[in-house]
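Sequence only, no structure available. Ideas?
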Amino acid sequence: MRQPPRIVMVANARIPSERAHPLQLMHMAAAFAANGAAVTLAYARRANTAAMRGVADPFAYTGVSKTFALAGLPCVDAIKRVTIDWPLLNRGPLRLAAHALQLGTFTLASLGTVPRWRPDVVYSRDLLPLTALRLLSRRRARYCFEVHTAPRSRLSAALHRWAARRMDAVIAITEGLRRWYLEAGFDPAHILVAPDAVDLAAFEGADRQAARAALGVAADARAVCYVGHLYAWKGVDTLVRAARRCDPAVQWFIVGGVPPDLTRIRAAAADLPNVHVPGHLPPARARRYLTAADAAVIPFSARHAIAREYTSPLKMFEYMAAARPIVASDLPSLREVLQDGRNALLVAPDDPQALAEGVMRVLADPALAQRLAAAARQDADTRTWTRRAATILEFIG
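Reply:
I predicted one. Tokens follow.
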């Protein structure tokens, strides 16, 4: 009997974490396993935040089936100390040194550990440890790089291209990233576009009225939801300004984020009693706000290349799976999935008035909201993690 392929995913990430990156990794590991692979997710055993240290079971926290192995690799980690514990040290050179030390020691740990697992495929979103394994490991395997953003500086772009050319496959999450590689002269046969995806089972049996009761939202209230981080490129500052232009009876819920971004958004909305910013919540609790909402927003900013060209946000697919009408910025990255007037309303980015008008249009027109939500939910059926993993496995052979 043929043995299942052995896949080692190498992830320089905290697990568990408040961020979307580790959540995506956990879902992809489970999806590879669902497609018949024997999967090990090797992550960095880093200093974690107080909230995440209280998570006893990463599988239960993320809602992912325990169908793969989690292995924490050691590293020398001062990132939390510099960026959170001692913010006065959070300066350019010290911050850079902390990140470089952590990444370098994690790469060394990967070199000493991953080959012993005899993988058939080594899969990673982190190019340095993946390149080191490709060049220095004697293990013959397929080395696959999943890319989520393009480098900014000329030097980092040159190093990135040099390393990525040594991979057996590049998995890009958007067409914008694929274009970046094609413009750099890469063989299109080695590049697959595979947007992110969603776990449909997480939304089965979701009850809007029960969610509202649990959150204390009135049954007849009009509620708008944003779920995700609060980085500047996410456009949540525009969302707060849009809320000022809407009917004050509309309740806005901004779910997610950690300081300092969370502090910034809370300050911006401090005088708006109808804007609620609960901060980061476990995925299951965050989905409750989405279930309770009448509309969901993606207000990404066109001022940032990652928002315009390179992002494939998990929230977008969750909004679709939850069958909520979506109001989103009209950006190339989002137009790869969302179509204006069919499964979403697309509005001018960085324009609070346009966002406010889009939201109020959806809230005022139940027939439109239902049509957009139904089309989005139907499209979500083809956007599952299991399908994404199957496509990637077929591509990399």
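The chain has a mean pLDDT of 95.
Hope that gets you unstuck.
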